[in-house]
Amino acid sequence: MELKTLTYLVVGASFALYIGIAIWSRAHSTGDFYIAGKTVSPIANGMATAADWMSAASFISMAGLIAFLGYDGSVYLMGWTGGYVLLALFLAPYLRKFGKFTVPEFIAERYYSRTARIVAVICLIFVSFTYVAGQMRGVGIVFSRFLEVDLTVGLLVGMGVVFVYAVLGGMKGITYTQVAQYCVLIFAYTVPAIFIAIQITGNPLPQMAFGAEVGNTGVSLLDKLDDIVTALGFNQYTSGTKSTIDVFCITLALMVGTAGLPHVIVRFFTVPKVRDARSSAGYALLFIAILYTTAPAVGAMARYNLVNTVQPGEIGSTDGNIAYAERPEWFETWERTGLLKFEDRNGDGRVQYYNDGNPAYASTAASYGWQGNELTVDNDIMVLANPEIADLPNWVVALVAAGGIAAALSTAAGLLLVISAAISHDIIKGIVVPEISEKNELLAGRIAAAFAILIAGYLGFDPPGWVAQVVAFAFGLAAASLFPVILLGIFFKRINKEGAIAGMLSGLLFTYGYIEYFKGLFLKWAGAPWGENVTANWLFGISPEGIGVVGMMLSFLVAFAVSYSTAPPPERIQHMVENIRVPRAQ
Amino acid sequence: MTPENRAAYWRANLRLVACCMLVWFLCSYVCGILFVDELNRIRIGGFKLGFWFAQQGSIYVFVALIFFYAWRMNRIDQKYDVHED
């Protein structure tokens, strides 16, 4: 069957499945809508959390990013998984015991303060919208490449599907569709990886193939990759270019940020027991790890395949590079999307791919008659193009398209739900109209979800230039504001309202200020960024991506200092903290 | 539940958390980042050990660690009689 028809069929079938599940699991109460009635089994919640967490970025971009970063890409692998350990040990069981609907609600009650709730809601909405914009963009890319429809049409269809199951089913609908989406996306991710692993090394397990021997050469994939990339002037694949302190801080900021993301935390509110919250975090990470341990293998194999395609012969020999006229079909397909670009700088009709930014390699390149790198490859195409590069059957390509859409939709839906809960539960019920009936609150939640989808769709259609830059900010913000205040609320009874608010705000402002200063976010009109974003200027040599760690420490320090110089929290709050530390209801 | 019992339960929990955090720190930050170059001199199969920890090993350890914590914590709950139902 033709690829396009097949893709329509596979993607269409997956949509029908999601909508069917949504109708079956409609929400009847606010409890259903916000936290799926606390009836989700820990394994199902683990799968749903995995689908919620693994976004278009994890599915589409991460392996490509690692393919070009090599060792430096480890910050994403460790950073986006290690956070679950923090979540399981420090937050999930206690917040489940607390047993309410939202993260700001916990902050409001623990710190007996509306101000704290409002600050938390602002952080939450900012973090979540940043993310959602990226997801809608991912949906658009997959649609326009595989279904060859206009970006707008792709976005509208994606929004329509999310609308049906998020608005109708709330958390309950989202949870069970996410379980289905996890299955689609993990199948779509691992099947091509297994095929490619067999092709390159003969070992079907990507995690093993990663370090296995290439063909019968006696050399392992990683060693071979180190050899060829260094021969082309790149840095060794298995060693990095970032400073140790920066790798350390970025990893930590991503871990703590992960644990502080509201749409992830809230997933642990849906399980029946405290015990389930603990094991569910384990299942979530197990399901995530299947993709996250495959991704670096995919990255290495993709880089290897790419270099071998471009450079089939000996480096430096006149016919060592592939002739442009003989390029493979996938090369042409991706050129049409603009994500793969070729420019024949030395006019020899062949494609040269090497590191022209390496001064030590310049004379070698010149002796080969090369006049600059001629191939630019967008990170995002590595996973999507992989099945085509490996010449896999069309149904695999169709499956990858459905997997990319599943990854984007599941994350978008989870984010939209925490946004709508923050509006209907924290703002409308918590602050504006506390006497609202349950029925009306449910309606408000649905309307808020519908509005959030519209805004997200708009952001995906016309992403402001700052979207890519604010991702670092979203993690930094979660790490420096939400995570410390929740953790302190559970582990330190003495932290009071004043300390919590001061801590949140100082972490927030410091992290925001640093990123604004070096990268420019909202104050571009006032001349931001003011500082040149280079190692020499950074505080302790920490890049804006890793600065959330310093913000977090500042937040902890300020919260302690202010709390101990003001009155302790009231007796009832201390009781509440003692109560959430113990699983059994009292 | 007596205050002493409550305090003892919480101390047991904190001890377990501290042990888990130590392992968490060792596998990712120590093996995968701080001493990666030293460990890269050791090889297992086709991998350099430090690189393997950074891109594979630490993730496996994280998964095992959460299940270990959940299992131990359930035992502690039973011991102090604070488990659910």
Q: Please, how many helices of chain B?
A: 3
Content-based structural category of chain A: mainly alpha
List the total number of helices of chain A: 22
Uncertain runs of chain A are none
Helical content of chain B (DSSP H or I, runs of 4+): over 70%
From the spread of the alpha carbons, the general shape of chain A counts as globular
Describe, in plain words, how this protein is organized in 3D.
- The complex is a heterodimer of chains A (586) and B (85).
- Chain A has 22 helices and two strands.
- Chain A has helices at residues 3-24, 30-35, 42-53, 56-69, 74-98, 103-110, 114-147, 151-201, 206-209, 221-231, 244-259, 262-265, 274-310, 329-337, 362-367, 381-389, 394-432, 438-461, 467-491, 497-519, 548-564, 571-580; strands spanning 340-342, 375-377.
- Chain A starts with a helix and ends in a 6-residue tail after the last helix.
- The model of chain A has no long low-confidence stretch (mean pLDDT 85).
- Chain B has 85 residues and is mainly alpha-helical.
- Chain B has three helices and two strands.
- A two-stranded antiparallel sheet of chain B has the order 1-2.
- In chain B, helix 1 (3-34) packs antiparallel against helix 3 (49-79).
- Chain B is elongated and about 55 Å long.
- The relative contact order of chain B is 0.15.
- The mean pLDDT of chain B is 91.
- At the A-B interface, helix 5, helix 10, helix 11 and helix 13 of A face helix 1, strand 2 and helix 3 of B.
